[in-house]
Amino acid sequence: MKRNGRPWALVVAVALLAACGTSTGNSFTTTEVVKFDAPWAMAFLPDGRLLVTEMAGVLKLYDPANHGSGVVGGVPAVVQKGQGGLGDVALHPQFASNQLIYLSYAEAGEGGVGAAVARARLVLDGQGGGALEDLHVIWRQVPKTSGAGHFGHRLAFDRDGKLWISSSERQKFDPAQDLNSNLGKILRLNDDGSVPADNPFAAKGGVAAQVWSLGHRNVLGLAFDASGQLWANEMGPRGGDELNRIERGANYGYPIVSNGDHYDGRTIPDHVTRPEFHAPAISWTPVISPSSLLFYDGALFPQWRGNAFIGGLSSESLVRIEFQGDKAREAERFDMRRRIRAVRQGPDGALWLLEDGTNGGKGWLLRLTPAS
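^ thats the sequence. predicted structure below, dont judge the formating
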């Protein structure tokens, strides 16, 4: 079957898991650990405890060693609407000495709703919880708009301590190509929210100075490979989900080109028709609805070191990606039978997943270990 003369992506499904409980498949055993209420992201602390964001605006602290769970207070006011709410959580690269964490979330303001990123100091109380202190907002989407979709707001730090933010186009299309807006872009900032002088559009000033790449739709995964190269996965429209190798100043073409079409049936020209725009390393039709991205370097699954894992929402999958230089391919797809919102590597090399708690999901935290 083809769309616009292009073969549809091959779907390789490997059924591994039962619907619930602890289950064993060919590659790993999956254990349900604890439930959260519509979780969105997680980050491991140096001591092995786990910060988990819930979309309603709650930051949880979970201890896998004793299964204890507490709440971290002081989270900023969050708008939970549609895809919006409390989003990503990331630790400062020097967290062990400064205790700084970063949160992304949807906030209300003039013009509607938009994503924001705040930095705060995490103070734990010794009782299984804690609080955020000295919180201040270091970045906002410009402009705020109506609607409740495509916030993006995924966070990542590079080896130089720069903060990267995905800012999706809020289902407004054209801002992805407009340097007077930071919507539909991937952004690079200093850890305090200021703009590095060597950003590709720094000389333009304003929000354009924040931009590293443009022409993105809805980027929900950001991660660096072992060489320090940034990769991003994004949701296409009706078809054309993407994995992209992110390059300085590059334009990835949305909404001018896409390997999918608009939901109302209007055709979007394929990437091949406009070679001046960067084409994806992988494109998926039917879509996988990519939610997150992780490069694996752990000890528990040595055969997967250097591979990436993408969580799938509508595809209810975990997708393994292999790389050869700047080329990438889908190597394996695990049928999780649940919407996967986030993927992280634990301190011991286990894979930890968050099940999406919306659209009928139960919000489980899952731990994947080698099958015995």
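The chain has one helix and 28 strands.
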